[in-house]
């Protein structure tokens, strides 16, 4: 099953009159880190649960390697739920060995894999402790180990970075990069958009159960407005007001922040700045994923 894609194809789900998912489609390619983002209640967890077979879709299909996902396929998927799905009174090592065996590993292979992931995720001193006695961050590490212990061919992770300290975030980020480098498709949801922007090859944004954007971060942000930081010590207040295709976002002393509409030439702004006297700074700031997300989720819905 190596080097195969996970495909979510035209998946819909309703709960009575509530449309949870409306023809959601995207794919997670082999060796790709795919960030799945959206506001609370947008449909991220529902999509992931359908991909795992925990929920059934009303329409559409989930495929892996071009074929519909079966029970056998699901046993090879590593899933990390947002709500921790661990047995609180089981010890860390015992739990991981048990879960690995549930996925079909032999006792010896399960034990070896569990010990490897315990060491890799910095849990060696906690291996014989009950999960309920661990900090929330360490419980999150155990949850990731549970998703990885059976050597999955796909990773589906719901808010894997929630509650982690910066060091743990770095460890988890490196683990996900390593799994993707072996050809495993990795999809994870997160509200930490700076982390998604830094880690992911592509990003999908879901809003009210519909996919509204899918692509690389440069592709998604290229169509958005960008900003120019200008420092003009001799300029009079309001010097940039009225320039075509621009909006003055902030003006503080000699520094002015100007937003450019898509297609606006920044040289127009530079010429206007030079006309006021010396220019100490003229730097362009491309829109971030956070900017794009904010615009997408707050824009008015079509009537």
TrEMBL record:
Gene Ontology molecular function terms on file: ATP binding; ATP hydrolysis activity
Per UniProt, residues of the ABC transporter domain are 6-233
The record's annotation in SMART domains points to: AAA (SM00382)
Which keywords does this Swiss-Prot/TrEMBL entry list?
A: ATP-binding, Nucleotide-binding, Transport
Keyword Transferase included in the entry's annotation: no
Q: Where does the source fall among the domains of life?
A: Bacteria
* UniProt-listed Pfam families: ABC_tran, DrrA1-3_C
Family the entry assigns: Belongs to the ABC transporter superfamily.
In its UniProt entry, what is this protein called? Answer: ABC transporter ATP-binding protein
Q: Which organism is it from?
A: Amycolatopsis antarctica
Q: What is the lineage of its organism?
A: Bacteria, Bacillati, Actinomycetota, Actinomycetes, Pseudonocardiales
């Amino acid at each position: 099953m190596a080097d195969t894609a996970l495909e979510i194809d035209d998946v819909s789900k309703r709960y009575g009159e509530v449309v949870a998912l409306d023809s959601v489609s995207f794919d997670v390619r082999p060796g790709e880190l795919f960030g799945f983002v959206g506001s609370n209640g947008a449909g991220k967890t529902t999509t992931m649960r359908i991909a795992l077979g925990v929920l059934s879709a009303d329409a559409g299909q989930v495929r892996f390697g071009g074929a519909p996902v079966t029970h056998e396929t699901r046993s090879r998927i590593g899933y990390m739920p947002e709500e921790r799905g661990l047995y609180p009174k089981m010890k860390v090592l015992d739990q991981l060995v048990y879960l690995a065996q549930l996925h079909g590993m032999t006792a010896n292979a399960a034990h070896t894999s569990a010990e490897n992931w315990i060491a890799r995720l910095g849990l060696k001193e906690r291996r014989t402790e009950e999960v309920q006695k661990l900090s929330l961050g360490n419980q999150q590490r155990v949850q990731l180990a549970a998703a990885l212990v059976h050597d999955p061919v796909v990773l589906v992770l719901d808010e894997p970075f929630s509650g982690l300290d910066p060091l743990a975030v770095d460890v988890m980020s490196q683990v996900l990069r390593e799994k993707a480098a072996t050809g495993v498709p990795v999809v994870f949801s997160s509200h930490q958009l700076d982390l998604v922007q830094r880690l992911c090859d592509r990003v999908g944004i879901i809003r009210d159960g519909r996919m509204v954007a899918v692509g690389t971060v440069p592709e998604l942000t290229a169509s958005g407005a960008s900003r120019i930081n200008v420092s003009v010590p001799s300029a009079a207040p309001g010097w940039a007001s009225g320039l075509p295709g621009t909006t003055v976002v902030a003006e503080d002393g000699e520094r002015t922040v100007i937003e450019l509409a898509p297609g606006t030439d920044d040289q127009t702004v530079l010429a206007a700045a030079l006309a006021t006297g010396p220019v100490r700074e003229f730097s362009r700031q491309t829109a971030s994923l956070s900017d794009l997300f904010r615009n997408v989720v707050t824009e008015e819905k079509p009537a």
